[in-house]
Amino acid sequence: MDGKIAVYPGSFDPITNGHIDIINRGLRCFDSLVILVGYNPAKSSSSLFTVEERVDMIKELIGENPRIEVDSDSGLIVDYVKKRGAHIILRGLRAMSDFEYEFQMALINRRLNRNIETVFLMTGSRWFYCNSSIIKEASSLGGTVRGLVPDSIFQKLREKYPDMSNG
């Protein structure tokens, strides 16, 4: 990967159409993206999908796009970004409630490494209310999330939650 590289970190548990929106729009701004599945080994029991499953699902979704790489890491994002030779962390924002947390994270990352910038993209208005936690909760309670996640992810959720509505 050459040119302006942005690292787009997240748990992606599971990846949603809101994430896909940020990926597609990020590709209009940067030469390449690294989608980084971040994880905390101490919190792995609260994840619906394993790190490997999440990486595989994202790779399946993006196909053979030479401008996108998918990776995973459990360390500090600024250390990973530096190791990759990048200088940009890409983050998506849905609402003001996201902004406060993301602003704090951007400030601490800037304190940890002044050479790394955080760039925020507002998600498309169709996805303002869409996040992985809501997707998991609705699915676990039998609700449908069709249209909020890519079809292949919807099928993976149905495997985890057989009682989920087909909607």
Q: Features of this protein?
A:
167 residues; Rossmann fold; 41% helix; globular
What's the number of domains?
A: 1
Q: If helices are DSSP runs of H or I spanning 4 or more residues, what is the number of helices?
A: 6
Q: How many β strands by DSSP?
A: 5
What is the topology, as strand order, of the major beta sheet?
Answer: 3-2-1-4-5
* Biggest pleated-sheet summary: 5 strands, parallel
- CATH-assigned homologous superfamily: HUPs
Termini distance?
40 Å
The general outline is: globular
What structural class do you assign from the helix and strand content? alpha/beta
**Stretches with pLDDT under 50, minimum 5 residues:** none
The Cα radius of gyration reads 16 Å
CATH class: Alpha Beta
CATH topology: Rossmann fold
- How much helix, percentage-wise, in residues? 40-55%
Strand content: 15-25%
Q: Mean of residue pLDDT?
A: 91
CATH architecture descriptor: 3-Layer(aba) Sandwich
Order of helices and strands: EHEHEHEHEHH
Structure overview:
The protein has a single domain (5-128), classed as HUPs (Rossmann fold, 3-Layer(aba) Sandwich). The model has no long low-confidence stretch (mean pLDDT 91). Helices cover 41% and strands 19% of the residues. The chain is globular, with a radius of gyration of 16 Å. The protein has helices spanning 17-29, 51-62, 77-83, 96-112, 132-140, 151-160, and strands at 5-10, 32-38, 68-73, 88-93, 117-122. It is of the alpha/beta class and 167 residues long. The chain has a five-stranded parallel beta sheet, sandwiched between helices.
